[in-house]
Amino acid sequence: xKKIQISPSILSADFSKLGDEIVKxxxxxxxxxxxxxxxxHFVPNxxxxxxxxxxxxxxxxxxxxxxxxxxxxxxYIKNYADAGADIITIHPEATDDLSESIxxxxxxxKKIGVSLNPDTPIDKIKNILSKxxxxxIMSVYPGxxxxxxMPEVLDKIKxxxxxxxxxxxxxxxxxxxxxxxxxxxxxxDAGADILVSxxxxxxxxxxxxxxxxxxxRIS
Length: 219
Description:
Helix content is 32%, strand content 18%.
């Protein structure tokens, strides 16, 4: 039985003490740290940039799972790689040449992720599935934390998982958006390897991060 990995989103953390929050996540059993980067253009919100990621790097040895919701993304990839990202995930709609951006991430010795919005079909990325380490399925429209999970993406997860198995691809399937104790089992059963969660991890059970991570993992 595969071990489900948990990538807590610091979008739901206390931004006045992000370093301490990351330490709590590592001590609580997180497998990686999910960093949502928004530009106010590709998505309707602004979050953090490379200097903050660089300043947070010293607080943990866990991989930084950096989701770039910025456009045009290509020219900023190196900045985030240099800041300490370990996994760099981009959207196909945010680059003029997805293959070129993938090659850039690879040349920087970072793991490659590609994200699909709820209305972005798998067909859009079929030609690059052998080149990536991670496919991030968005189960909400990106831009804000705390949104409700969209159950219609479960079929997309199942289809992607079938493609992965049938073709012996090596990427992980990550799911982000409204993940909680009620729906995590369905997401795992559909084929997810990594769950991203913010609100549930930081807010449930009076903020008991360790308990919340373990509950999500074994759902």
